[in-house]
Amino acid sequence: MSNFIERSTDESMSMEVDMVLGDPPATAIEANRNYAAFQLSLECAKNEYLTDEDQRATYYLGGICCLLPDVTDDLQEALRSMDLRVRTISFPSAAARNGLIVPPKEVEPKKSMALFGYLLIMLYKNVDEVLFRGFFEDHLKKLFDISGFVPREGEDVSVFSDAEHAMYYRNSYGQNHGIRTGNSHVATFFFIFTILRGSPVLRAPRLADEIENFRRACEAVLATEFPCYYMIFEDPESYAILDRSNFPTLTAVAMKLRTNAELCEVDYYVAMHRNQLGDKSVSLSSDDNGNVKEDRVNCNSALVIN
Asked: What is the mean pLDDT of the chain?
């Protein structure tokens, strides 16, 4: 029997999608329910008989919620913003009556954590079908090494049945701001780090406070064993140090550089002026005898000739 639920659709209503979540665990041992729910979510998503791609992608997204329950409310709200109604199927309490088969195989937390990390990364990476295979193999191998999972010979370690399903998941849900927001601070930090690394902007005296905040963020991230997977393996409470509000100007500069926009002629002369005079400009005035003199004034002041 396949894990496949026929869902009725009513064109007058928003589409309903199912999300499998583990029953709230009472003890650490029962936390295995979440890993089992994660495995079940992946099995449902990879079902060859499933034709609703929104449902398939939601099963994958639900897998993230199984192992990172704190983001469940935010992700479900993001789905509702896409005109999708979310129906939660609790595992194992409600699995059988909803036609879902409980996975008979042993729960594998290390493998689940690696696959969970891959699902999360896919929301942020721009990868097309041509590059998908190499991307999958490279990142999954790194995640297996980190989690300590060693696949058995011939074991199925795939996350998506094919590249088309991966692209739908990435393009549909990876573009949703609400879904990405859960890790937006981390993404912003790595964005700035990549663009401005070694830049003279990071030595600008007027940005001293932002630069210090960014330095502290760098120390926190680079002190971990696997910095590039910080958003997967570190405590979400530690994300506050990476909040973009700690370095708003650096964020804005990196964003402008990222667009590769050319500076116009006016920008060039403004930069020339500021390099020479800073925030000051020259104002002309005359004394009581009619002699013209120069005054240094704020750039926002008007040019006045008395």
From this structure: 75
Query: Strands, DSSP E only, in the chain?
Result: 15-22, 84-91, 280-286, 292-298
Residue 306 domain-assigned (yes or no): no
Terminal Cα distance for the chain, rounded: 91
Tokens in use for 227? 């910095």
What percent of the chain is helix, strand and coil (3-state, nearest 5)?
55, 10, 35
Domain count of the fold of the chain: 3
Q: Per-residue pLDDT tens for 258-287?
A: 776 666 666 666 666 667 656 554 444 445
Residue 203 lies in a domain: yes
- Cβ neighbours of residue 97 closer than 8 Å, sequence gap 6 or more: none
Query: By the 8 A CB rule, do 284 and 301 touch?
Result: no
Q: How far apart are CA 306 and CA 71, in angstroms?
A: 63
3-class state of residue 67 by DSSP: helix
Please report the sign of the dihedral spanned by the C-alpha atoms of residue 216, residue 177, residue 18, residue 47: negative
